[in-house]
Amino acid sequence: MKEFRLPDDLPGKGGPDAAQGIIKLASLAVGGQGGGVLNGWIVDLARQNGYAVQATSVAGVAQRTGATVYYVEMTPRSDRQPVFALAPSEDDVDILLAAELMEAGRAMMRRFVTAGKTRVIASTHRQLATVEKVVPGDGIAASDEVMKALDSLASDYVAFDMQTIAEEEGTVISAALFGALAGSGALPFEAESFRDTVRRSGRGVERSLAAFDRAYEIAAQGAAGEGATARLPEPAAPARDGAPSGAAALMRGWADLEARLENLPDGAREMARAGLVKVVAFQDLRYGADYLDRLEALAAKDEAAGGARHGQDFTATAAKYLANAMSYDDIIRVADAKTSQGRFGRIEAEMRAGPDHLVRVTEYTHPGAPEIISLMPAPLGRWTERRGWAVRGIDRLVNRGRHIRTDRLGGFLSLYCLAGLRRWRRALLRHETEMTHIHAWLELAVSRLPHDYDHAVQTLCIRRLVKGYSDTHARGLSKFDRVMEGSALVEGREDAAEWTRRLINAALKDPDGKALDGALDTIATMIPARRLA
Amino acid sequence: MAERSFKKEVQQLRIGAGETFAGEGILAITKALLENGVGYVGGYQGAPISHLMDVLADAEEILGELGVRFEASASEAAATAMLAASVHYPIRGAVTYKGPVGVNVASDALANLASGGVTGGALIIVGEDYGEGSSIMQERSHAFAMKSSVWLLDPRPNLPSITEAVRHGFELSEASNTPVMMIVRIRACHLEGEFEAKDNVAPPLSVREALANPRRDTSRIVLPPYSYRHEAEKMTHRLPAALDYIREHKLNEVFGPETGKVGLVLQGGHYNGVIRALQRLGLADVHGDTDVPLYVMNVCWPIVEDEFLSFCEGKESVLLIEEGGPEFIEQSLRAALHRAKAPVNFSGKGIVPPVGELTGEVLRDSIRDFLVQAAPEMLQPADRSPNRPGPSEVPDLGDVVPARPPSFCTGCPERPIFAAMKLVEGDLGPRQVASDIGCHLFSTMPPFEIGGTTMGFGLGGASNAAFGEGGDKRSISVIGDGGFWHNGLNSSITNAVFNKDDGVTIIVDNFYSAATGGQDNLSSRANNPTKSTQHSIQKALKGVGVDWVRQIDRTYDVGKVRETLNEALTTDHKGPKVIVASSECMLNRQRRERPQMARAISEGRRIEKPKFGIDEDICTGDHACMRLSGCPSLTLKQTGDPLRDDPVAHIDQSCVGCGNCGEVADTAALCPSFYRADLVHNPGRWERRIAGWRRRAIGWLQARRDRKRLVWGQA
After folding, report:
1. What is the DSSP-derived secondary structure letter of residue A17?
2. Looking at chain A, which terminus has fewer C-beta neighbours within 10 angstroms, N or C?
3. Phi, psi at B98, each rounded to 5°
4. How many independent structural domains does chain B possess?
5. What mean pLDDT is reported for chain B?
């Protein structure tokens, strides 16, 4: 590990860079992370160790959740006052603290990290920016790109998740960052001196020190690069992992279905297993058998179209999207999830409830006429749907926000009964609608299989666009339709699969489908040329 | 109660001669005011001098002991008008606000004050908000000093220099009967440093004593014939007096060797940046001893021409380092050189960029470029050579690292107002929306993207005036409670009443001037011991003739905000329609309530703490909720489920349970995956027992259902 060493003779004029005798430390943080506290600690630490020090920050509007910079300069105290700069300069930062991974990225972009010079101490957790969250698809920035850049640029860095350490110790990230700074050895001060600074600050000292010590240990062991992975909030283990439990007859039925998975090609089996679990949990064993029937038929077509050459991608993709399509998001599913065994325990854990606490749970639901009609037996539903007055009447009756207390018996029972409609689900309008939709979609995909394998796979992927409830669901369906149409326009082209993939990505970019419009317009300009040719 | 408390820090204001002060720039300025016998202080908050106002407010007791009057002024104009006390009375007064926006507002009073002149020292401390992190238009306050003949100090950014500038500011003001403006840049306000303290001095004449012995002098009134006399006086008396004082007390400083072929001229505020550039070029040492002569203009207006000319004497080339545009100082210096026919090569803008902050990199490059032409022998070979290796490799992360502009805080009560506006936009189509200054201006950013202009503090309503006649679609203006009391009641509301404006105004009332740091204002709900609060915005509106007023007392009720806005946009009522949407700033509320709650819980009292959550199974990953929120605590997580492509919504531990998520999901009929969980601390015995019964009954029902199906992973 590199230690910061002051040059033996402070360079003066006529040397290469007189400012080398000054330690320059910049912290990049997100407003609200407690960067000011950290800055204050560093100043105190430097003063106590006989250093002349100057700290600055850009207080102001950026502190409202925006990206912000704190800056400290220090040099051993002498009888003359040094001249410090007020802001970090490009290629002139010795120690860079980043309180969040993308801020480390921002530091590199701003040239605050210089190869062979800058010591980087970064927390690898992510605090997502608004622009990452509003994308209908996956808009989360690529953390590994930042880690790669860090790896190639800063030979000497300490990077690990300091936010989780702080949270686990019931404090804020500044304490963990301060510990990592101490552990990294980047500053020429003793660890105990760091701790004294924390003690002097007076508030929440024990918690701060606990986080400090944990971060110190990791940094001191040379966390440079090792285990430095960027991390989002811990992905929960898939809700339905492993083997189910249940009555003997049901378990026998399940074993039969599981055995059928062996008939599927290797490349698709794991996905099909996950899919099978999902549809059986959604409905019942018979539904699982339906799923496998369809999947086996698709696998046979896949085989006939030379799927082996493509690693049976068609079957694997179908296994995924068919399971999702068959487990459509109806009210019954929602009510079932809200009343499921184990949910209350999950919420209690999430709330960090102890034995001396009680937890009350309120659900926010807002059913409208379409949801109610979709729960009707198919013929009645179809009849109602066609009559505007009936739809309006039902809407007047049901359309309002309902806050349901599911920790109470009354609220729980209402959802429990709704979930009980499951046994009639196959006869309801929603089911009929979904099955028709699935049928048309699979037909089209299968029809493309013989002459354009990749395009057929992409056709299956279009199903990714169907998600959400009520209006959002309707918008998703309309995007699905438009991409399906778009995919028909490019059919026959060599790059049809690529175009359909692009359409899907465009549809996931924004909620109103502006990017999709653009992509479809581009296709429209290509079409006449194709027809003429 | 302001966002940051300086109760502890202000105790340093009591220290005396022989002691060392250590702390922030703004605190040092306050200390310097007290050391120099200031009689009254005032101002209006705004970065970077918000904390100066907070320091003064927290120091009221100490100020009172010295007989110093403190005003939290209603606006910068009010603050500057307060300096009228120094016109006839030999009392030192100081006010502070941000520049140039505060100076814009103050300019009426400033020009009148400057015309008549002052007897007591009048000091205006301007926090210049320019460059990185700035929230305002990029302009210079310099022009105001020039046009009104106010002297402009721009001291070197270290605490000894800044505190000395306060003393000289008062003395210069008195010596030349002219108000003095002192600029401190954003980082200088917040720099931590030290200086040798002096004893505090009570004002020789207090405002109380002056009030008992009134004075007047008609010749100080801005009316003919005196106004013409003032104009002449500025040139014939005040300017020469000021120049004498500046020369005599060496307010401008010269550093480095006495002779040299080149020299640098700079604004005092950029001294540290220039020294760092010279250090990096090997031309200065750690303590600032430089090989290049420097003429440091701690006074940027007026220009001491003879001083500057004598600095240029014997030099071949001189570079002026001046930040921002227009290049006022360069014009003045060039004129001086021209008048004197001085044979020096003078450069300024062109080598120094015409716009933008003078960052470390800009300064180093500018000075190097200048020296390459003017004195290449001074440079290190690597700096002199045009073939020097380029700057370090910058990883291309432009497409990866997301922009992170400031936004509404977790639980902000303004978020649901804009969520409702977004829903109304869906119902009734987009509208002409004018924004104002304040946290609510974040509505213009994702995810809301509402509002097209911002014309000034309290001018939201006025900036829609052209559309006041109405039409198919009414306009909407947004204004905050801070802006309302600063200027909005008059410029936006009475303006709309008088002109029979048909538009809709939403007043975002969060109980504080929140964007500037949570200072109290007239309608704040807090009991402020030294200020009069709890004045109703609604009553003020009715008082000036607004007939259609709707009060919303809980902005988190998205449905109600939506309904009210719908009504305002569609009602037949003629004349302005004003909605007052009130809920406390969450940042301040948390600061206030958290310790109270913690105490209550430890005392064994029953407390409910809400937090929102999301059922991962039910969330489909469409992120529609994000587009109506942008809350930092509402975020995403990967599921680890191979069947799912997109991350699902997730609410992290920072959630304060404001209710926006649930209300939005409900009002927009978004998705049923949200739930609110209330953690009950210290529940009663009966409550516990009933909860136990409920749990058993629910458990029995769940077990009954699970007997008929397969169940996964219920460990």
Report:
1. -
2. C
3. -90, 155
4. 4
5. 94
Q: How many pairs of residues across A and B have Cβ atoms under 8 Å apart?
A: 453
Q: Are residues B521 and B422 in the same domain?
A: yes
Contact B407 A236 (CB under 8 A): no
User: Hey, are the CB atoms on B681 and A356 less than 8 Å from each other?
Assistant: yes
The domain of B435 spans 415-588
- Chain B hits for A419, CB-CB cut-off 8 Å, are 705
Is the CB of residue A504 less than 8 Å from the CB of residue A483? yes
pLDDT of residue B715: 42
* Cβ–Cβ under 8 Å, residues A1 and B268: no
**What DSSP string describes B230-286?**
HHHHIIIIIHHHHHHHHHHTT-SEEES-S--SEEEEEEGGGHHHHHHHHHHTTSB-T
Phi, psi of B183, deg, nearest 5: -95, 130
Structural domain ending residue among the three candidates A312, A327, A342:
A327
Per-residue pLDDT reduced to its tens digit, B175-195: 999 999 999 998 898 888 889
Cα–Cα nearest to B711, from A282, A246, A416: A246
Render A374-415 in DSSP notation, one character per residue.
HTSBHHHHHHHHT-HHHHHHHHHHH-S-EEEETTSHHHHHHH
Separation in Å, CA B458 to CA A101, A504, B48 = 38, 45, 20
In chain B, what percentage of residues exceed pLDDT 70?
Answer: 98
B435-476 pLDDT per residue, tens: 999 999 999 999 999 999 999 999 999 999 999 998 999 999
| Owner of token pair 């039910």 | B618
Q: Which of B329, B333, B328, B363 is nearest to B345 (CA)?
A: B333
| A225 confidence band (pLDDT: 50, 70, 90) | very low
Q: Are residues B191 and B94 in the same domain?
A: yes
Q: How far apart (Å, rounded) are the C-alpha atoms in residues A409 and A401?
A: 20
* Residue carrying the six token digits 């003095």: B180
pLDDT at position A13, please? 55
Which residue, among B124, B195, B198, has the nearest Cα to B166 in the 3D structure? B124
DSSP A286: H
Sort strands B92-99 and B122-128 into parallel, antiparallel or unpaired: parallel
Whether the CB of A320 is below 8 Å from some CB of chain B: the reply is yes
Does residue A462 share a domain with residue A420? no
Same domain, B244 and B272: no
Candidate from B47, B687, B695 with C-beta closest to A59: B47
> DSSP label at A231?
B
Q: Looking at the partner chain, which of A109, A284, A337 has a beta carbon nearest the beta carbon of B618?
A: A337
Other beta carbons within 10 Å of B132: 15
Please tell me whether residues A180 and A249 are part of one structural domain. Answer: no
Q: Are residues B533 and B648 in the same domain?
A: no
* Count of structural domains within chain A: 4
Structural domain harbouring A400 = 331-430
Taking only the tens place, the pLDDT of each residue in B20-38 is: 998 889 999 999 999 999 9
Which of A133-137, B581-585, B620-624: highest mean pLDDT? B581-585
Non-local (6+) Cβ contacts of A326 within 8 A are A279, A282, A287, A290, A291, A434, A438
d(CA B460, CA A417): 52
Reported ipTM: 0.92
Structure confidence at residue B91 as a pLDDT band (50, 70, 90): very high
Mean pLDDT of chain A: 90
- Residue A386 resides in a domain: yes
- Measured CA to CA, the distance from residue B8 to residue B569 in angstroms comes to 50
As a whole number of angstroms, the distance between CA A406 and CA A361 comes to 6
A53 touches chain B (CB under 8 A): yes
| pLDDT category of residue A442 using cuts at 50, 70 and 90 | very high
Is A194 in the same domain as A153? yes
Q: Is the pLDDT confidence value at A412 over 70?
A: yes
